[in-house]
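Workshop exercise sheet. Pairs work together: one partner reads the sequence aloud, the other fills in the structure field after running the prediction. Swap roles for the next sheet.
Pair: D.N. / O.F.
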Amino acid sequence: MEDTIMTLVKLRNDWMPSFPSLIDRFFEGDLMDWNSTNFAGTNSTLPAVNVKESHDEFKIEVAAPGMKKDDFKISYENGRLTISSEKKNEREEKEGEIISRKEFSYQSFQRSFAIADTVVSANKITAMYEDGILNVVLPKREEVKPKPAREIKIK
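Structure field:
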């Protein structure tokens, strides 16, 4: 019997951290360690993610407070789960209102995870957004779930 192992891998399209992050990291002493950066603590809109595994499923939790479920787009294609969001906050101007300064609010992000097609049931992936957390559940295929040990009787 062949063992199947699934690994979720975070894929990033960026090749360099944001400028404020670069300055902060210069003073922290790890300027050259760009691959292990968690941008959740910076001013970027890249949300923090938890990945959990149980006997039956993998669960991805994305911290995205202030969003609505319609702000997200989740897709699965060729072994890659992609979670993205784009949100624009624009305020309507009232008649007779004079604006001397207007700052636009725009948030977007994209997170991708490599997931072997042989491990999850792609057609059973579900998502729910509640209390600022997007939960994506990836059920494991029956054939890759751990089986209990079988006791063999001695004759």
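Discussion prompt: The domain at 9-13+46-90+104-144 is CATH 2.60.40.790 (Immunoglobulin-like). What would you look at next?
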